[in-house]
Records
---
Amino acid sequence: MTHNKINFGIMLHGAGGHMNSWRHPSVPADASVNIAYNVDLAKRAEAEGLAFVFVADGLYINEKSIPHFLNRFEPLTLLSFLAAHTSKIGLGGTVSTSYSDPFTVARQFASLDLLSGGRAAWNIVTTPLEGTAKNYGRPHPDHTLRYEIASEYIDVVKGLWSSWEEDAFVRNRETGQFFDPKKMHRVNHHGKFFTVEGPLNIQRSPQGEPVIFQAGASESGIHFASKYAEAVFTHIQDIEGAKNYAKHVKDGAVAHGRSLNDVKIFPGINPIVGRTKDEAEEKFRAIRNLVNIEDALAYLGRYFDHHDFAQYDLDKPFPELGDIGKNSFRSTSDRIKQEAKEKGLTLREVALNETTQHGDFIGSYDEVTNRIIEWFDKGAADGFILTMQVSGQGFDDFSTEILPRLEERGYFDRKLHHNTLRENLGLAIPSNRYAEKQQIVAA
Amino acid sequence: MTHNKINFGIMLHGAGGHMNSWRHPSVPADASVNIAYNVDLAKRAEAEGLAFVFVADGLYINEKSIPHFLNRFEPLTLLSFLAAHTSKIGLGGTVSTSYSDPFTVARQFASLDLLSGGRAAWNIVTTPLEGTAKNYGRPHPDHTLRYEIASEYIDVVKGLWSSWEEDAFVRNRETGQFFDPKKMHRVNHHGKFFTVEGPLNIQRSPQGEPVIFQAGASESGIHFASKYAEAVFTHIQDIEGAKNYAKHVKDGAVAHGRSLNDVKIFPGINPIVGRTKDEAEEKFRAIRNLVNIEDALAYLGRYFDHHDFAQYDLDKPFPELGDIGKNSFRSTSDRIKQEAKEKGLTLREVALNETTQHGDFIGSYDEVTNRIIEWFDKGAADGFILTMQVSGQGFDDFSTEILPRLEERGYFDRKLHHNTLRENLGLAIPSNRYAEKQQIVAA
């Protein structure tokens, strides 16, 4: 059973979350397009008992993008490939609701879910990067509109996922009856943004529907997460903040008629561990030294509508930016501005801080193990998504040193007990939207 | 080497091309969603030396759809899964240019191509089924407009596939240089239907770009095929017709400045073979007997805008339909009307004929082997796509009886010699659109 245990997922993001992770000797420099490396990592994660791998995404790059964003596998194709090499680990991937069609996306995730035996998860993003509009020839919707679109979109997709009841496909060779038309349902959606008739041309999987991941941090994002998400990622790096966030999301879920167990909180952490705290800090510095200041400034610009920070003095206080960044990664840009003001940071400090996040999980093996347990026990996390700064060393250390300690203390099983992601995460199978209605009528 | 040899592909379409193939004892009834069955068939096809598997697609179903269309895997996810289970066979799939975004589709095929080591092919369809519009909330473009959209679409996609030159990713850990900005290119497309800046966020594969498949049969379709397609499917069932078609397409290719070797003709055939012609005909009748007349009429309606044929007398001449069917599967509906008139067929005969195609490839092992060689030698085909009526028996017989005969006569190698689809089909690697320009400038 998975109750009382901590779930982990790991992000597959090439050489790592650090912008210059590809320079680190512990990973292949081409990790983001190295299929053997991705297969190996997914298999190791499964063998260690991690609940899922997760592939983030983006739809616009330019010269200033961080290197592994320039050249990487597309999530659905990568996850389908990994599905064939694994049998129990969940397969989560990002697709934007602002730049896709609900019929197509409902189908591709349903297909991944079915061919993996019930292991798919869809991470819903609304796409903050304005440049994306240039690759799709349509105006970039603003923050509020993006969430309005996303809400209608997910409603359509979940409707399509209910197109067929479990026992709709009779396949009686004697009578020639292939399916029961009463168990086929059309979503017949006519909304503000989408018109979709249905039905979807694929059945449900052993876990009913793909799991819904989401990572909204703004108020609209949290509202969306409370209503729809089943696993919520957060970048909050302090335990009190994470606890408040978790309570906020879960209270919201209850207000939407959901149960506390219907939504799991997964802070993203990037542990760097060593035999001593000093050894861990030394590893941290080695990673931070992979970056030069020009790259750091360009990367910072990404959160501020690609603002050119090279124009400022590096060692003067972080510049006043006014409204720049308001319509992009709003929660991140607000945080950066606020921290810079509160701590009186220079531009150089802000830029380097953003390239190499320090956070709460750098320390000795026992310190980090304790920290993880503390977050879990205090309700700041149901599990964690590992967004390793450097995938090689980061996951090597974590699997060798931290997971065994957590297992020893009864907080983790280095073994997946179930074949579907929902079961491994302790999430219920969603009822079929239309079958449920029939039951109510029959009662 | 593959010259002078016949290439084969096989369609993965569940239990088979026959509408009631799921009732045949030689295949699982749920073949279209049975992943183990699909893996097994792809592996067997690879072991036998077939050049590719191919997944057709559709984006709209209703109660009258043929059974395996109701519930099937989505092509890109299925092919990515199969990529992991195979190492040499090509992986072709259908995606519509009328109901998708070029940036997304360019990426997904490039990703499949890269993770499979250079084995992807994109079958371009413009989507004849009008009902599709109901699942995508936009008007269904008419025949001419669909091809106009498709031409601009493929131009954008091929531009995106040239985003990165082969040696663009330097990944020099010492200097910190990840890529050479001079070898990154933007398509910067501003057209009638699409606006796409680029670059694409994934590199080229070992075969350069995915192979372009196409199956247009109308004049606009043939024009499109001549200009862009590298492997062209045709449903023509007589050798003279196929020969004329091949000449027509290849002449067109030359007129577009391409070489005769740049486009390969693949008639779709569904051989049914036996020790004698009688045994083959008996197998044919067993398949035809799987269908009842109500299903046959509903299926026929699919080619005529879902026209209700149940209103007519079954044993009277095929009804006058006027313009019905003009905007859907035009070439098929025209053929059906013409054949009915020429041969004086009743509605019952037309309907049954359409459920179970007879064609030129039913006969004894030697007859069918000879027929295949004749088509190839006379220039009616560079290869064939096997669209088996019943995948189980059909491919069992073909691989056991026909392929060894073809091999014995020097027309086929039961072994793939190369790791990329282009090499196995004898197609050149396309030049990078932008790198080529630089060479001209430098010359």
---
Amino acid sequence: MHPVEFFEDFEMGTSRVTHARTVTEADIVIHAGHSGDFMPHHTDAEFCKTQPFKKVIAHGTMTFAMAIGLSVSGQPLNPNGMSYGYNKLRYPKPVFAGDTIRVRITVHSKEDHPKKKGYGQVVEVKEVLNQHDEVVMYAEHVLFVKKRNA
Amino acid sequence: MHPVEFFEDFEMGTSRVTHARTVTEADIVIHAGHSGDFMPHHTDAEFCKTQPFKKVIAHGTMTFAMAIGLSVSGQPLNPNGMSYGYNKLRYPKPVFAGDTIRVRITVHSKEDHPKKKGYGQVVEVKEVLNQHDEVVMYAEHVLFVKKRNA
Amino acid sequence: MHPVEFFEDFEMGTSRVTHARTVTEADIVIHAGHSGDFMPHHTDAEFCKTQPFKKVIAHGTMTFAMAIGLSVSGQPLNPNGMSYGYNKLRYPKPVFAGDTIRVRITVHSKEDHPKKKGYGQVVEVKEVLNQHDEVVMYAEHVLFVKKRNA
Amino acid sequence: MHPVEFFEDFEMGTSRVTHARTVTEADIVIHAGHSGDFMPHHTDAEFCKTQPFKKVIAHGTMTFAMAIGLSVSGQPLNPNGMSYGYNKLRYPKPVFAGDTIRVRITVHSKEDHPKKKGYGQVVEVKEVLNQHDEVVMYAEHVLFVKKRNA
Amino acid sequence: MHPVEFFEDFEMGTSRVTHARTVTEADIVIHAGHSGDFMPHHTDAEFCKTQPFKKVIAHGTMTFAMAIGLSVSGQPLNPNGMSYGYNKLRYPKPVFAGDTIRVRITVHSKEDHPKKKGYGQVVEVKEVLNQHDEVVMYAEHVLFVKKRNA
Amino acid sequence: MHPVEFFEDFEMGTSRVTHARTVTEADIVIHAGHSGDFMPHHTDAEFCKTQPFKKVIAHGTMTFAMAIGLSVSGQPLNPNGMSYGYNKLRYPKPVFAGDTIRVRITVHSKEDHPKKKGYGQVVEVKEVLNQHDEVVMYAEHVLFVKKRNA
């Protein structure tokens, strides 16, 4: 299989699933210190006992960072593509310590780049799934990719 | 000053700026290990010497996590608001080790919640600025907030 | 409420309580590596089973560091005050992984600075409380603070 | 040399010096996240440029934690002694990234325990020295130690 | 290219080179705390100034851990192979903060497993190279691998 | 007891046992990020449930790093010895979070250095034992040591 490299290589609707990773209490502790986000949902177990979920919730920013980490792991660098950013980052369900997450990446849309000739814009949907196959994060990743025959 | 708590408390166009934080080489190393994103832009100084920026670039996911950390630091928990997610996450300029970042948070739009009576939807723009006042990250944060007189 | 900034602003006996944070096994592991203190009370669960408390105990230096972290979080920098040091740092009870700690800060004494005209010396007592409202750390923090009308 | 174990083994005025350790930027970053203390003296290089020392200063709580780590490293556990706490913790000079610190531990005073028969109270002074032999931290460590012939 | 999975798939003398990673001061600090190895070659910059290399040297155990990390990154799990251990782990040259390392993995020997029918023993040489193409670590990794037609 | 310093000081068959350390989930998480080794045996709890051991296994490279850390902790630097490398690194049994490990170090062989006059070669066996006294790691550490009367 040759790597997906040029705009033409992205096929609408195709998807791949990354390997998985278990989120741990240690990850949440490290993320709190790394990001400086010590909100009680993430670091105060007594507060969390009074809340609907009863336990500490992983930071959304951590799930996002791990999702990108899982997505790029083992992937070759694509010299013909660059990340433009993300649209619609959503967290439909919480992630807890002990959950095992993986990412399903789907080619969601393709179109010519509005301004840059020889380039296309690809949107990949990145869905983070937990061990119950529930979507816990949804993001639309916008890529600018060179056309092969530009 | 009473805290911004209910939908009515958000005033269009007002903004606040957080305290600042210097991004370090250690942060980038910790983020690579924490996220599992060891792409060469972030962890291979020799590769980076061959690239336009000549040096290692901070992960976009780290800038995002630190931006949220700066935004919530010292803020009271708002029991009447909840984060729905983000729109349009963009990275107009790179962040390097040694850069000092802070976040400017602006009330960008307000409207009634499309479905949930008694609630409004607020979009706050979070712009990460570096020490040269350049915008290095732009995000639209979508909040659902209770109305005071719901 | 204007910030407590000058010597005159400190009112004897007033106190504030910080937000709370749960101490985790990960924190103790990180602290051992960070400080280099691998004494068996903190890192050897088998040894601890033979001791009165039966389980691993948090480092006193970690409780102290977290107490200061909780104390300064969200507080404005006071350009008119400086920390002189601490007196009587005591640990009346152990802290375990799973405990949730917060800090009660009380203005304990006020007097003119013995030598520096225009300055006063304030002692704030910092008590770390666990989820059972037990005092697990006690410290007297000595501050030198400018007088407003110096 | 037999280990210093009982009250009688502590000789007034004797001292030992620990091995040394270089404080790094990474240590300060890790300590900020671990303690939650992101005050600008420790994490904002731009702010620090406007201050007398011109650069980021290590957290006092980190110097304290490292000092205890250096003090206990390679020392046998003393089953006849217990730490009661500290008096007079002072920071006469700042510690910067790049400084190399070690601890000089001196038997400062010895007296019978005021209440507990068969025990004595020993005060050890722990002085943290930098590479210029300047004292950057001073602490009086109070120990309760069993008497050999109690 | 199908993955190297069975004994028959390993071809004598073939090699692959992993992606690269820059070793940083932060890595050395983290490794010292993680391993508990605070020997002065790794953590005392003043001591190192008196030594032939003049600066802090990375722990051999860290180079080893990173080498394995680089080797497995992006590789599929091989259900037909298992690691038996290593022979001849050598460190011909030091690694310093700022060095960029990668691993060259070469099939060094193949033979029938001495006892286990249907299995072979493969030795892969893992050489860690720095940015000057110098070998800084050499290890012989012993694998037990199922035969395809066992 | 004078320190073991010269070739003559190593006595065949003598051994010492280090202090112990409990391996935690946090250690495994930190090691995965530090080494970049996110293989499912170490980071995917769901995968591990399908495997013979049912739970996450510590990285062999972490056990090795901790073993060296335990071995050198509190030991004086020997100016007359240098590490040449390791032979036969083996992992007879897995290490799990919660296991407490210590190292037994035995003088295994002594001979004249094959080339370097005035030096000898000493092999120390380092065996990592868990709380059930099972050997979980075995390594032969090769040292070059000066002779006292060289």
